Amino acid sequence: MAVRPLVKNATSKRQVKFAERKAKEAALQALEDLREVLATEVGRRVVYRLLKSCSVFESIAAPLELIAYNAGRQDVGHYLMALIEQADDTAIFTMMQEATVAKRKDARERDAVHTEKDDTDGSED
To answer: What is the pLDDT of residue 124?
Structure first.
C-alpha cells in the first residue's frame, strides 16, 4: 500500500503545520512504544538480538564486496541504538548486563553437561 503524503501543497501553512504535528506525534508514539518494549526482559532480549545481528559491537571489516553491506547493516543498528538511548538512557547497559549473565549461565550449563558421565554408552565425551 502506498504511503499518502501529509502535505499536497507545500505552500499551504495549514497543511505544513498539520504534517509537522503528525510527524511529532508519530515520533513521540514510537519512543513510547520502544519504552514499553524495553520495560520487559523479553523485549530487551529481542532488541539486543537485533543489535547483535546488526554487528553494532563488531568491526565491519570483511572482503571488499561485503564492507558496504556490513556498513549498511551496522548503520541500521546504530540508528536503533540512538532510538534506544532516547527512549531509555540505561537500557543498552541493562541489555548488555542481562546478555552477559545469560551467556555465563549457558556456559555453566554446557560445561555441566559436557563433564557428566554419558550414561548411553558408558563413555565420556
So the answer is: 55
- Comparing C-alpha atoms, which of 97, 106, 95 is closest to residue 43? 95
- H or E element in which residue 38 lies: helix 13-38
pTM: 0.77
What is the mean predicted confidence (pLDDT) over 78-98? 97
Judging by beta carbons within 10 Å of its beta carbon (0-12, 13-18, 19+), is residue 7 exposed, middle or buried?
A: middle
Phi, psi of 124 (to 5 degrees): -105, 150
Number of Cα atoms under 13 Å in the Cβ half of residue 1: 3
Residue type present at position 50: L
Provide the grid cell at 33: 512504544
pLDDT band at 117 (very low <50, low <70, confident <90, very high): confident
